[in-house]
């Protein structure tokens, strides 16, 4: 499997993965904007010419990478794909001038929190009742070193 830059030709595959891994997090229009905007980073782990095993996207605000999506197909989890995609996204952001990275994650998302902590993120704060169902978000933050 290979990590590639996703372009708009991957829209249909992103929608399939989004439905399977995130229960329809973004609409087709949101995915299209993500894939078309050259300021956004969007990487995919490609299974074959049509299929995606995972995606990792973010955007650079000055020197900070804001991670917007990280998802791995439910049938392919716990095989290192999430870590591989996240590491690739951080490396790419560093090359593009990012000095730190941040994101929000549900406070009960144990899989994502352990992945972020494994990759060096620290919990930097809590946004209470951030999600529609009333659950809290934990702000994750890490510095990106020049070696990355
Ligand atoms: C979070 C997610 C991307 C992890 O992807 P993954 O490919 O399964 O993760 P990896 O196999 O690379 O695991 C990396 C680390 O994460 C942790 N981890 C992953 N899944 C875990 C689980 N179910 N329970 C506990 N820890 C877990 C482990 O610490 C693992 O480290 P190790 O391999 O050294 O033990 C995946 O579960 C997913 O797509 N979840 C739904 C979408 C989501 O919640 N995204 C994050 C939104 S902020």
UniProtKB/TrEMBL annotation:
Q: State where it is primarily located.
A: cytoplasm
Q: Which reaction does it catalyse?
A: N-terminal L-alanyl-[ribosomal protein bS18] + acetyl-CoA = N-terminal N(alpha)-acetyl-L-alanyl-[ribosomal protein bS18] + CoA + H(+)
**Which EC main class describes this enzyme?**
transferase
An example of a Gene Ontology cellular component annotation for this protein is: cytoplasm
Compartments where found: Cytoplasm
Q: What is its EC number?
A: 2.3.1.266
Q: What is stated as this protein's family in its record? A: Belongs to the acetyltransferase family. RimI subfamily.
The protein's role, per its UniProt record: Acetylates the N-terminal alanine of ribosomal protein bS18.
Give the protein's recorded name. Answer: [Ribosomal protein bS18]-alanine N-acetyltransferase
